[in-house]
Amino acid sequence: MPYAESPDTIFAYVKYAHGLYNGIVILLFVCQGWLGFKIRRGRIDGNPPKVMYVRRHRKFGPALAVLGIFGFLGGVGAVSLGEGRIFEHPLHFLTGLTICALIITTVVVSRGIRGRETGIRTVHYVLGMIILSLYCIQAYLGIQMIF
Protein backbone atom coordinates (compact mmCIF):
# COMPACT_ATOMS: atom_id res chain seq x y z
CA MET A 1 0.00 0.00 0.00
CA PRO A 2 1.50 3.35 -0.99
CA TYR A 3 2.10 5.82 1.78
CA ALA A 4 -0.18 8.81 2.09
CA GLU A 5 1.21 12.28 1.65
CA SER A 6 0.69 14.70 4.49
CA PRO A 7 -1.56 17.70 3.78
CA ASP A 8 1.44 20.03 4.13
CA THR A 9 3.34 18.14 1.43
CA ILE A 10 0.34 18.17 -0.89
CA PHE A 11 -0.10 21.91 -0.27
CA ALA A 12 3.56 22.48 -1.17
CA TYR A 13 2.99 20.70 -4.49
CA VAL A 14 -0.13 22.77 -5.15
CA LYS A 15 1.78 26.00 -4.46
CA TYR A 16 4.51 25.03 -6.90
CA ALA A 17 1.94 23.95 -9.50
CA HIS A 18 0.21 27.34 -9.10
CA GLY A 19 3.52 29.13 -9.58
CA LEU A 20 4.48 27.06 -12.61
CA TYR A 21 1.07 27.50 -14.23
CA ASN A 22 1.09 31.25 -13.71
CA GLY A 23 4.69 31.50 -14.89
CA ILE A 24 3.60 29.97 -18.17
CA VAL A 25 0.57 32.29 -18.30
CA ILE A 26 2.85 35.29 -17.76
CA LEU A 27 5.08 34.19 -20.64
CA LEU A 28 2.02 33.77 -22.86
CA PHE A 29 0.82 37.26 -21.89
CA VAL A 30 4.23 38.68 -22.76
CA CYS A 31 4.06 36.98 -26.18
CA GLN A 32 0.53 38.33 -26.67
CA GLY A 33 1.67 41.80 -25.67
CA TRP A 34 4.61 41.65 -28.06
CA LEU A 35 2.29 40.62 -30.85
CA GLY A 36 -0.07 43.49 -30.02
CA PHE A 37 2.86 45.89 -29.89
CA LYS A 38 3.97 44.79 -33.38
CA ILE A 39 0.44 45.40 -34.66
CA ARG A 40 0.30 48.80 -32.97
CA ARG A 41 3.71 49.85 -34.23
CA GLY A 42 2.67 48.96 -37.78
CA ARG A 43 -0.51 51.02 -37.47
CA ILE A 44 1.36 54.02 -36.07
CA ASP A 45 3.94 53.82 -38.86
CA GLY A 46 1.12 53.87 -41.41
CA ASN A 47 1.65 50.30 -42.56
CA PRO A 48 -1.31 47.96 -42.59
CA PRO A 49 -0.89 45.30 -39.89
CA LYS A 50 -0.13 41.79 -41.02
CA VAL A 51 -3.38 39.86 -41.07
CA MET A 52 -1.66 36.83 -39.57
CA TYR A 53 -0.64 38.84 -36.47
CA VAL A 54 -4.07 40.40 -36.04
CA ARG A 55 -5.84 37.04 -36.31
CA ARG A 56 -3.48 35.42 -33.83
CA HIS A 57 -3.86 38.32 -31.38
CA ARG A 58 -7.66 38.18 -31.63
CA LYS A 59 -7.77 34.40 -31.39
CA PHE A 60 -5.54 33.96 -28.34
CA GLY A 61 -6.60 37.07 -26.39
CA PRO A 62 -9.84 35.69 -24.94
CA ALA A 63 -8.22 32.31 -24.21
CA LEU A 64 -5.37 34.00 -22.35
CA ALA A 65 -7.88 36.07 -20.41
CA VAL A 66 -9.55 32.88 -19.19
CA LEU A 67 -6.16 31.32 -18.35
CA GLY A 68 -5.19 34.40 -16.33
CA ILE A 69 -8.42 34.34 -14.34
CA PHE A 70 -8.06 30.59 -13.72
CA GLY A 71 -4.56 31.25 -12.40
CA PHE A 72 -5.96 33.66 -9.84
CA LEU A 73 -8.77 31.30 -8.86
CA GLY A 74 -6.27 28.46 -8.57
CA GLY A 75 -4.19 30.54 -6.19
CA VAL A 76 -7.24 31.42 -4.10
CA GLY A 77 -8.20 27.74 -4.02
CA ALA A 78 -4.68 26.65 -3.08
CA VAL A 79 -4.47 29.11 -0.20
CA SER A 80 -8.00 28.28 0.98
CA LEU A 81 -7.18 24.59 1.09
CA GLY A 82 -3.72 24.95 2.57
CA GLU A 83 -3.76 27.87 4.96
CA GLY A 84 -7.47 28.48 5.28
CA ARG A 85 -7.39 32.24 4.77
CA ILE A 86 -7.25 33.95 1.38
CA PHE A 87 -5.75 37.06 2.98
CA GLU A 88 -2.72 35.11 4.18
CA HIS A 89 -0.69 37.01 1.56
CA PRO A 90 -2.70 40.24 1.12
CA LEU A 91 -0.44 42.05 -1.35
CA HIS A 92 -0.20 39.00 -3.62
CA PHE A 93 -3.96 38.47 -3.38
CA LEU A 94 -4.84 42.10 -4.13
CA THR A 95 -2.39 42.28 -7.02
CA GLY A 96 -3.93 39.11 -8.50
CA LEU A 97 -7.42 40.49 -8.01
CA THR A 98 -6.40 43.73 -9.73
CA ILE A 99 -4.91 41.78 -12.63
CA CYS A 100 -8.18 39.85 -13.01
CA ALA A 101 -10.22 43.05 -12.98
CA LEU A 102 -7.93 44.60 -15.60
CA ILE A 103 -8.06 41.48 -17.76
CA ILE A 104 -11.86 41.59 -17.74
CA THR A 105 -11.79 45.33 -18.48
CA THR A 106 -9.37 44.77 -21.36
CA VAL A 107 -11.61 42.12 -22.88
CA VAL A 108 -14.62 44.44 -22.64
CA VAL A 109 -12.65 47.33 -24.13
CA SER A 110 -11.32 45.15 -26.96
CA ARG A 111 -14.88 44.30 -27.97
CA GLY A 112 -15.37 47.99 -28.74
CA ILE A 113 -12.42 48.29 -31.12
CA ARG A 114 -13.76 49.10 -34.57
CA GLY A 115 -12.14 50.35 -37.74
CA ARG A 116 -9.21 52.71 -37.52
CA GLU A 117 -10.20 54.67 -34.42
CA THR A 118 -7.22 55.04 -32.13
CA GLY A 119 -8.74 56.19 -28.83
CA ILE A 120 -10.04 52.83 -27.69
CA ARG A 121 -6.94 51.09 -29.07
CA THR A 122 -4.83 53.32 -26.83
CA VAL A 123 -6.94 52.35 -23.82
CA HIS A 124 -6.47 48.67 -24.76
CA TYR A 125 -2.71 49.21 -25.08
CA VAL A 126 -2.40 51.01 -21.73
CA LEU A 127 -4.45 48.35 -19.94
CA GLY A 128 -2.25 45.65 -21.46
CA MET A 129 0.92 47.39 -20.32
CA ILE A 130 -0.46 47.75 -16.80
CA ILE A 131 -1.37 44.04 -16.76
CA LEU A 132 2.13 43.06 -17.85
CA SER A 133 3.68 45.33 -15.23
CA LEU A 134 1.46 43.94 -12.50
CA TYR A 135 2.27 40.39 -13.60
CA CYS A 136 5.97 41.16 -13.07
CA ILE A 137 5.22 42.45 -9.57
CA GLN A 138 2.97 39.46 -8.92
CA ALA A 139 5.68 37.01 -9.97
CA TYR A 140 8.18 38.75 -7.69
CA LEU A 141 5.76 38.59 -4.75
CA GLY A 142 5.06 34.92 -5.43
CA ILE A 143 8.73 34.01 -5.61
CA GLN A 144 9.35 35.89 -2.36
CA MET A 145 6.72 33.73 -0.64
CA ILE A 146 8.52 30.55 -1.67
CA PHE A 147 11.91 31.58 -0.32
Summarize the structure in words:
- The chain has 147 residues and is mainly α.
- The chain has one domain (7-146).
- The protein is built from four helices and no strands.
- Helix 1 (7-44) packs antiparallel against helix 2, helix 1 runs antiparallel to helix 4 and helix 2 runs antiparallel to helix 3.
- It is elongated and about 65 Å long.
| Helix proportion | over 70%
What would you call the shape? elongated
C-alpha Rg (nearest Å): 18 Å
Number of strands: 0
What's the order of the H and E elements?
HHHH
Keywords:
single chain; 147 residues; mainly alpha; 0% strand; elongated
Question: In short, what is this structure?
Answer:
The chain has helices at about 5-45, 50-80, 90-110, 120-145. It is an all-alpha fold.
Question: How is the secondary structure organized here?
Answer:
Elements: H1 7-44, H2 51-82, H3 90-111, H4 119-146
Helix pairs in contact: 1-2, 1-4, 2-3, 3-4
